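Allow me, if you will, to draw on your knowledge of protein folds for a short while. The matter concerns a single protein, recorded as an amino acid sequence and a row of backbone structure tokens. Kindly check, if you would, that the fold set down in the tokens agrees with what the sequence suggests. You will find the record immediately after this paragraph.
***
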Amino acid sequence: MTPKNSSGRAQRADSNRTEPVDVAPPIVGIGASAGGVSALQELVANIPRDSGLAWVLIQHMAPDRHSDLAGILGRKTDLPVREVVENTPIAANHIYLISPGRVMTVNKGVLLPVSDGDPLARRTSIDAFLISLAADQGDHAGCALLSGAGTDGTIGLKAVKEAGGLTLTQTLQSAEYDSMLLSALRTGLVDREVDICDMPGLFTDFSGPPQTDRPRSRSWGRRTASDLRHSSKGGRP
């Protein structure tokens, strides 16, 4: 499939380029598991069209079933929603979705999905992506964990935090399943526990105003995670 058309349908990314992206937007990695579909719908419905960010969604899915999640999410947003099945350069103001049966990483601004028959690897697909995101993007990275069971995402969130990125979780009371969130919160490395509808604005504030042709450097003038943690109202610090 190709980018979402004017009718609002999400389509599949079909690029197989592997060249590094010289001008990459800040990237936000979102992890979700059980109960995550409704949470992801709320998230994408609140992403502004001109945030200047790229959004990568890692949802645990059954490897042997077709997923219509890209279409479901595409009906909630005007942004292109792409299911990643091949190496795909990241662009700003796009939403990228992991494909069933794959583990995905990012390297030099290119999403790299790999088919993996190991159930254990798929159960840690959020960690795998966030660890690669932190290594690739440094403090240009951000991440959020939504509803989910288990502990996937905790190690990856730690990597993003240590790289200087912003780390958020959905509020415990709003999550259908909260064990994934509790695991992350116990590390003490979550910048804020917030309502899903507030997440896009916080990531946009953290990255600074959208710019065109922004080089891949750490020199943007932007608010720090500490600024956002202490100056915003609501949520839990």
Notes: Helices lie at 36-45, 69-74, 119-123, 125-137, 154-162, 179-185, 199-207, 225-231. The chain has eight helices and eleven strands. The longest helix spans residues 125-137.
